[in-house]
Design goal:
The structure holds 2 protein chains of 2 kinds.
Chain A lengths: L2 H15 L3 H23 L2 H17 L10 H24 L24 H6 L2 H11 L3 H12 L4 H8 L3 H26 L1
Helix pairs in contact in A: 1-2, 2-3, 2-4, 3-4, 4-7, 6-9, 7-8, 7-9, 8-9
Chain B lengths: L5 H8 L6 H10 L1 H17 L11 H10 L8 H30 L7 H9 L13
Helix pairs in contact in B: 1-3, 2-3
The chains are: A mainly alpha, B mainly alpha.
């Protein structure tokens, strides 16, 4: 996000705070797509992602007076969406009776069913197969690991910021990322080997 | 020889390594760690291939349509201030009316001067007809 965008966002936020509904609409239209991307990466489900985006904007609207402008509005929104996604994924797992896998054990290895011979890396990369395998591997992460990984890997947040979103120490955030990467490697490395 | 841990390599991948120069020097001279790092890079690079559904160009507008019904109306501060001013002015006016009513009800009028009554008795009112003759 450029500083010009941030300044403009700040002005639009001021108008939205003053009760201008068109201003909040502008914020929704500006940030909706990137929030959807984040929510999809965190939930792995289109419908859930759309619900998260809506809920995030509603939360933001209610908390608009508390937005102090220290972070860019987009960053603030991403934090809200990350928390909404985390809440949704945790609730979904509770409903499904899936225990969070905070540490290594118990995860299925989706690569175990891979054929001994496979297509070339180029062909794999072009197919939707890799994406499906990655999605499966991501689903094996605990909600906290997935959130930490998405924020670090896809959103480019530093570990300290990941810790702030997760409301934990940076060290704990780092360890969530480490566990996530370890699980992803375990799941995806065989695919890379097969593809060689 | 102490090899780099997976954690150190992950931090290096994300540019958050704590001991960058030392790790870099070690990687330069250690084929085993380089192989591990290359494997890590391959996996993390391929994770980027995770596809996210494309959203329609009018996604934001459609999103707003769904949200608009659920977003509570936020009053403009100057409207709120204006309405407070109206309420205050109304209350002040009502107070004045009440004060005037109470003042009229409870304050005694001064007695009429007795001399005026006596003068009236002595000087009756003279009435004239239209032709200017006294009645």
């Amino acid at each position: 996000m450029s500083s010009r965008m941030d300044v403009t966002d700040a002005a639009v936020v001021s108008r939205a705070r003053a009760g201008d509904p068109d201003a909040f609409r502008e914020l929704v239209e500006r940030h909706g797509r990137s929030l959807f991307r984040l929510a999809f990466l965190m939930t792995g489900n289109q419908q859930d992602a759309e619900d998260v985006v809506q809920e995030s904007f509603l939360r933001a609207y209610r908390q608009l007076d508390g937005f102090d402008g220290r972070a860019a509005f987009g960053t603030w929104m991403h934090r809200i969406a990350a928390n909404c996604s985390l809440d949704l994924v945790r609730a979904r797992r509770r409903r499904e009776g899936r225990l969070p896998l905070e540490d290594g054990g118990g995860a299925q290895d989706p690569m175990a069913q891979l054929p001994a011979t496979g297509p070339t890396p180029e062909r794999i990369a072009l197919s939707g197969e890799v994406s499906r395998r990655i999605a499966e591997a991501m689903d094996e992460l605990s909600p906290t690991e997935r959130t930490a990984f998405v924020l670090r890997h896809f959103e480019g947040m530093r570990m300290d910021d990941v810790g702030r979103v997760l409301e934990c120490q940076p060290g704990a955030a780092k360890h969530s990322v480490f566990r996530a990467v370890r699980k992803l490697r375990r799941a995806l490395d065989p695919l890379m080997s097969v593809a060689k | 020889m102490n090899h780099l841990s997976e954690e150190e390599l992950i931090l290096r991948y994300y540019g958050e390594e704590d001991a960058a120069p030392a790790a870099g020097r070690h990687l330069d001279g250690c084929a085993e760690c380089r192989a591990l790092y290359a494997s890590l890079q391959r996996v993390l690079n391929v994770v980027d291939a995770l596809s996210v559904p494309e959203v329609a160009p009018d996604y934001g507008a459609r999103l707003w349509q769904r949200l608009e019904r659920r977003v509570p109306v936020r009053r403009r501060w100057w409207r709120a201030a204006a309405s407070w001013r109206r309420v205050a002015a109304g209350a002040a006016f009502a107070g004045l009316l009440m004060a005037a009513f109470l003042a009229g009800r409870f304050f005694r009028r001064p007695p009429e001067p007795a001399i005026a009554k006596a003068e009236l008795e002595q000087n009756p009112i003279i009435l004239y007809r239209p032709d200017n003759r006294r009645i």
